[in-house]
Design a protein that fits this description.
Elements: E1 4-8, H1 12-23, E2 27-32, E3 50-54, E4 61-65, H2 66-70, H3 87-90, H4 107-117, E5 125-127, E6 129-136, E7 154-160, E8 175-179, E9 181-184, E10 191-192, H5 200-205, E11 210-213, E12 228-231, H6 235-245, E13 262-265, E14 290-292, E15 295-298, E16 304-306, E17 311-312, E18 317-320, E19 324-325, E20 373-375, H7 384-399, H8 416-427, H9 442-454, E21 458-460, E22 464-466, H10 471-478, H11 480-488
Parallel strand pairs: 1-2, 1-9, 2-5, 9-20, 11-18, 12-13, 12-18, 13-14
Antiparallel strand pairs: 3-4, 6-7, 7-8, 10-19, 15-16, 16-17, 21-22
Length: 490
């Protein structure tokens, strides 16, 4: 049984963990690097500058911000963001949004909701703490024990976070602590991903090209008058393209050619987002965006070659809205258990570095080498609050000894048979979904399966009512995109 637990992060997932673990009588503490709850829903109006560097041998691009090097990256939230799904689907069970909150609100409404939700959980949270080390404890760690304490499974070091206002480093105070269990809930958005594009390094270092990542997006003003290509498919790419497009002049009505100043490079049309090349696109962006396929190469003359053989010329700025990689800098492969079972495998033949977390059970929740380490919210393309709430409940019940018999087995894709199947798909040229992709209706199927594993039905605490996802909620999820367009306009 787990009697003491640490939660790394007090965003929406970390708050779920605090709520559910404390209900099971577990002595739980959260370390949060920022000064308030909310995680990525905290908006930073001054995200700082990004630094891009290129590997000379491979051309791979790495991007960091100065504050990231100090340990507290700014959030990826940007002005004008509206939720993709209605608040009636986003809320935790039994804790609805207020009646004055719009159906598709901006980030400030979500931050307020999380802040209100956290009120009874604040005694469990230590703010302004950045975790720097997580590993199994060793006998030598006993020197750090306080009188009356005992050595537990996990040894954790944390330091005061750098000042979010000034970016200055914190002091040298190191807090050392021991826990029976650890929940990692540090989110998805700390390590921006930039794909390797042949010629990109030369285009930047020699050709004067400018690159950016959507994590630092705060509005179109910096790109006025420039020809921009946005690379990406999902919601943030759509928002960036839209915000630039509405500042551009409309296409001529006299039949003369329109000189495009804005391109979107994408693999396919996302389920959510504007179809900029459709005649049904919103009027304020219609005809202003040239949608193109994937970038293959940036040639020496600065033109951009696409995979369909066409060429785009004159691009001055490329904005990558290409997502993020998982990052656990505190879980070093130099230390056990990560020395033998790392969370991120650098030489995986099937997955790029950071695109998935390894050595997890089929729920993508429990770390198989030691199930007293767990993860929340790794699943993508889901509505996170209600899904993670059930996931946290499952962890709490398991750690409290109430679910001793639930199986902990690898994901099929991590078995020899599954790895062979995935490799064969690659050879056949089939596009595989990202490892942690769930989507709809999978997210609701997961909740139903996990609730059944919990074997608890009825009411508890904050109005919880356990039961399978209602058909009406599934129907609303199916029509969320159309509803959003009707309400928001895009």
């Amino acid at each position: 049984m787990v009697k003491t637990a640490l939660v790394i992060g007090a965003g929406s997932s970390g708050l779920s963990a605090l709520d559910q673990l404390s209900k099971q009588g577990i002595n739980v503490t959260a370390y949060e690097a920022r000064t308030e709850v909310g995680g990525q829903w905290n908006y930073d109006d001054k995200p700082g500058a990004a630094t891009f560097s290129f590997d000379e041998a491979t051309g791979a691009c790495t991007v960091v911000g100065g504050e990231g090097q100090l340990g507290v990256p700014r959030t990826a939230m940007y002005p004008g963001l509206k939720t993709n799904v209605p608040t009636t689907l986003m809320a935790y069970r039994g804790v609805q949004f207020g009646p004055a909150v719009p159906l598709f609100p901006d980030s400030s409404a979500i931050q307020t909701y999380l802040s209100d939700y956290s009120t009874p959980l604040l005694p469990f949270i230590r703010f302004n703490r950045t975790v720097t080390l997580l590993r199994h404890s060793t006998p030598n760690d006993s020197q750090h024990l306080k009188p009356g304490d005992e050595r537990k499974q996990w040894y954790v070091e944390s330091v005061p976070s750098p000042s979010l206002a000034s970016g200055s480093p914190g002091n040298d105070e190191v807090l050392r602590a021991f826990f029976d269990g650890v929940v990692i809930a540090n989110g998805h958005y700390a390590k921006p991903f930039v794909p390797t594009v042949p010629g990109l390094a030369r285009w930047v270092t020699e050709g004067g090209g400018e690159i950016a990542h959507a994590r630092w997006w705060r509005g179109p003003e910096a790109y006025a008058g420039k020809t921009v290509m946005v690379i990406g498919t999902a919601s943030s790419a759509s928002d960036v393209v839209r915000q630039i497009a509405i500042t551009l002049p409309p296409p001529p009505t006299d039949g003369s050619a329109y000189i495009y100043k804005l391109y979107q490079s994408r693999r396919h049309q996302a389920a959510m987002g504007i179809k900029f090349d459709s005649p049904d696109a919103p009027e304020d962006v219609r005809g202003k965006v040239m949608v193109v396929t994937v970038v293959k190469d940036i040639r020496e003359d600065g033109s951009i070659l696409l995979t369909d053989g066409s060429v785009v010329e004159g691009v001055q700025v490329i904005i990558f809205a290409t997502g993020y990689h998982f990052s656990f800098p505190f879980a070093s492969p130099a230390n056990a258990p990560f020395s033998t079972h790392p969370l991120i495998e650098l030489n995986s033949p099937l997955y790029s570095t950071g695109s998935r977390v390894f050595h997890l059970d089929s729920r993508q929740t429990f770390y198989l080498p030691d199930p007293t380490l767990t993860f929340l919210g790794l699943q993508t393309m889901v509505i996170p609050f209600p899904l993670v709430e059930v996931q946290a409940r499952l962890i709490g019940l398991k750690w409290a000894g109430k679910l001793p018999n639930i199986p902990l087995v690898p994901d099929h894709r991590d078995t020899p048979e599954g790895e062979k199947e995935e490799a064969e798909k690659d050879k056949a040229g089939e596009e595989r979904k990202p490892f942690h992709f769930v989507g709809f209706p999978g997210e609701y199927d997961l909740q139903d399966a996990w609730l059944e594993e919990c074997s608890e039905w009825g009411k508890e605490g904050r109005g919880w009512e356990f039961g399978k996802i209602e058909p009406a909620k599934r129907d609303l999820r199916t029509g969320a995109g159309a509803l959003r367009k009707a309400v928001v306009g895009y």
